Amino acid sequence: MSEHSYLTKPLKEHFGFDSFKGNQEAIIENLLAGNDSFVLMPTGGGKSLCYQLPSLLMDGIAIVISPLIALMKNQVDAMRSFSEDDGVAHFINSSLTRAAIDEVKRDVITGKTKLLYVAPESLTKEENISFLQGVHISFYAVDEAHCISEWGHDFRPEYRRIRPIISEIGNAPVIALTATATPKVQHDIQKNLGMNNATVFKSSFNRPNLYYEIRPKTQNIDKDIIRFIKSQEDKSGIIYCLSRKKVEDLAETLLVNGISALPYHAGMDSAVRTENQDSFLMEKVQVIVATIAFGMGIDKPDVRFVIHYDIPKSLEGYYQETGRAGRDGGEGLCIAFYSYKDLQKLEKFMQGKPISEQEIGKQLLTETAAYAESSVCRRKLLLHYFGEEYTQNNCGNCDNCLNPKKQMEAQDLLCTVLDTIMAVKEKFKTEHIIDVIVGKETSEVLDYKHEDLEVFGTGQHEEPSVWQAVIRQAMIAGYIDKEIENYGVLKVTKEGKHFLDNPSSFKITKDNEFDEEEDDVPVRRGGSCAADETLFVMLKDLRKKMSKQLGVPPFVIFQDPSLESMATTYPVNMDELQNIPGVGAGKAKRYGDEFLKLIQQHVKENEIERPEDLRVRTVPNKSKMKVFIIQAVDRKISLEDIAVSKGLDFSELLDEIEAIIYSGTKINIDYFIDDVMDPDKAEEIFEYFRESQTDDIDAAMTKLGGDYTEEEIRLIRIKFISEIGN
Known about the structure:
Elements: H1 8-15, H2 24-32, E1 37-40, H3 49-57, E2 61-65, H4 69-81, E3 89-92, H5 98-109, E4 115-118, H6 120-123, H7 126-133, E5 137-142, H8 162-169, E6 174-178, H9 183-192, E7 199-202, E8 210-216, H10 221-230, E9 236-240, H11 244-256, E10 261-264, H12 270-281, E11 287-290, E12 303-308, H13 315-322, E13 332-338, H14 340-349, H15 355-373, H16 378-385, H17 399-402, E14 407-409, H18 411-423, H19 430-438, H20 443-447, H21 464-477, E15 480-483, E16 489-492, H22 494-501, E17 507-509, H23 533-550, H24 554-557, H25 560-569, H26 574-578, H27 584-605, H28 622-634, H29 639-645, H30 650-662, H31 670-676, H32 679-691, H33 697-704, H34 710-725
Parallel strand pairs: 1-6, 1-7, 2-4, 2-5, 3-4, 5-6, 8-13, 9-11, 9-12, 10-11, 12-13
Antiparallel strand pairs: 14-17, 15-16
Helix pairs in contact: 2-3, 14-15, 18-19, 19-21, 23-25, 23-27, 30-34, 32-34
């Protein structure tokens, strides 16, 4: 990079920097020469400067199309801080009053303004189009350009209309910028913006200072997060959650446990949201708990950790959110909590969408699951996803590289996979290939008569998860290609065909195991999660005995997770017992004495030192929601209306009601059940629970056949526990 180019002086004069970073100078020169530019640069690489500096050097005004209001304000403030005149940068969006918009237009007409940020929705308004037609435009910058693509992680339909509007206002060079784009998304953006001849500037996506780790999402996730933050000595961090409700609950939980934290999501009052964002930027609080809306373009260089409470919907989203850590090149710890159940929930949310959108969404989720479960270097996987090759075998800065698993020889397995892909004429996805190999007669396999193939069932000796690992790692090695735009169909590459002709050693590591959870206790490692197996078995025996005496199923007394928690923290009095998840005051009074006696005796006989472990304080405020629901049910308000009034979906409301009845409070929802369910159906489900040894919903659905929805079974389970147990 030339130290003394003609651009170094204005860079120093306007922004105070002595030299450019990475591709910045080449990008700016390309734009000044009047060419279209496509810029792929990771978060923290300095994208904004690529259009800010040229806007000051060129005649006319640069239009920056940007998706987030908070982002615009942030960038305009930053731009003004470099200039003597506040009029140098402005934004137009729905947050401005008529008077403020008139002031912006005055500054634009008089030539004061060099940079105008516009939301895509505002750009499409007739009055703004006709106003901009009378202005000399130096260039258009499309920021967060991945929003154009349905395959991007933040698709916005209004971004699709940018090109026709640019043509209507008046053509000028276009610079499109994004921090995350797979090759597929990149192609999509260029095609949609009509800039196939643009010069492409692609920086490496590798952020060597970021540490990537995936942890199993257990019942103790809040405790894990609190313990982690307390080890971070006032360092700044962001926690991402998928739902607004979880954002607020977690921020409260952190606060009562002595961690300064604030929530941030789109449903909050915008003044409060801005205030919370500023408190985080000004370091008045240590942690911001947010939905993904937080952080786009927020230039806080010293975020030291990013935690994903829920696994994101796509790897682009994950990459961009983790990219907010360590932008100054210092430490950045990126920890995501993963449970397969979360992915199933996300898939459920897609059900109302058009089929093509569901297909895309499912594939993006599949990629995320593959990343989470894989035991290969996380850096290698991420960079491969973004079309970049990472040649080192061990990056030394991710959980998989720091705790490498033993490798196994998979030469024969790879040959089987390649043979199978060829045998089905390279027209099927991963799941189908594995079904054929392990000999699973699914309807799709039978429809295509693939059970007659020679390869059918040849891989029964290995688990499907091993075949998953072979396919994923063969993709990274370049033997298999996945056609994303063709719904993830697998093809054998030239290298793959060469391997089939001349097989050689191919080592893989088996995937990490995220065992499926039962009874909502995620990630079991051989049996229960209880610390004291002996006590856990004794508590189960006691529950069985009481279940016989009282004539109620065992789960009505306490669920397994509650017993596991008792066998981990050893509660010895009523107060401690009430704090066990799923117990509460009602249950503790009704069933608690016998359990406390057993635990006290066990502690005494075995001289157990009770763990003065991190005790997570719960938020008393949660009772507000509880009281609201109980009162609304008493007044016989429809459960659907209660859900809407609290911004919950129906399933989340049922979660809340289950928490209330499982902790021993009686609730009568007969009025709602009578309204929405056939009485015979209700009776049949009720009888099922009376005779069952488990309250597991999946078990109930299997046993009862396909005649009932999950919601119906959950409603009757609530009625059953409330009437029989409470």
